Amino acid sequence: MQRKNSKEWGKWSTPKPTEVIISLDFNKDKIVIYSTEIQHYRIIEALGTEHTDKDVITSYICKNVEGIVVKLSFFIRKDLDNKTQLYLYHKNFAFCYDIVEITE
Hints:
Layout: E1 21-25, E2 30-34, E3 38-51, E4 55-64, E5 69-77, E6 83-89, E7 94-99
Antiparallel strand pairs: 1-2, 2-3, 3-4, 4-5, 5-6, 6-7
């Protein structure tokens, strides 16, 4: 999603199927997304967890390898059978991954 202006986001683009692996290493304060381009994020600040009627949201302020600040938010959609999503908010765009947990 592209930012419309400084206060509003535009519409989401058409979703594209993809498979990625997301590695969470809280002991080393890092999150790595293994996609077409590997994305490394260093956790700068844990923002805690917010509970709403529909969602449980856990957010982090991170920096990527270029030093750009990015907010990462994990959403659990209670109204969608606990569907889990990861949102990455950059300054002028955002994107989202639907998550399926693999516990092998």
